[in-house]
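Quick one:
INPUT:
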């Protein structure tokens, strides 16, 4: 599995490895929830998103959006993984980042999905999970 590109199905497997996760569709895209709150979702770039890249080339390949705890965490994640994580104008002021699935390693993807789940899970559930 090492060295292979990640897929939406890999993200789904990671999400379902966490407690109380359900999957649904939001705006027609696969979305994962814990206690009714979304924490990861398939997020292709819209025409408007692509236009906002201007002369820069937008990332190609499938994208996964993941929640982060807050805007400070968002900055930290963007700095820690600049090759695989980015943000777009649409996400300004919003605690989430986009992950390039065709560039991210499995370990980093697992970390990002877990952190997103922890950001969305009820505190008691998150604490219980972390104690295990």
């Amino acid at each position: 599995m090492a060295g292979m590109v990640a897929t939406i199905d890999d993200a789904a497997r990671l999400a379902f490895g966490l407690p109380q996760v359900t999957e649904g569709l939001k705006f027609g895209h696969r979305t994962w929830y814990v206690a009714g709150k979304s924490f990861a979702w398939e997020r292709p770039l819209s025409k408007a998103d692509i236009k906002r890249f201007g002369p820069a080339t937008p990332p190609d390949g499938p994208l996964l959006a993941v929640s982060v705890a807050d805007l400070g965490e968002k900055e930290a994640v963007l700095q820690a993984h600049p090759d695989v994580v980015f943000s777009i104008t649409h996400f300004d002021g919003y605690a989430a980042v986009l992950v390039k699935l065709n560039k991210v390693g499995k370990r980093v993807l697992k970390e990002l999905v877990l952190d997103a789940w922890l950001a969305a899970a009820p505190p008691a559930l998150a604490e219980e999970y972390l104690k295990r």
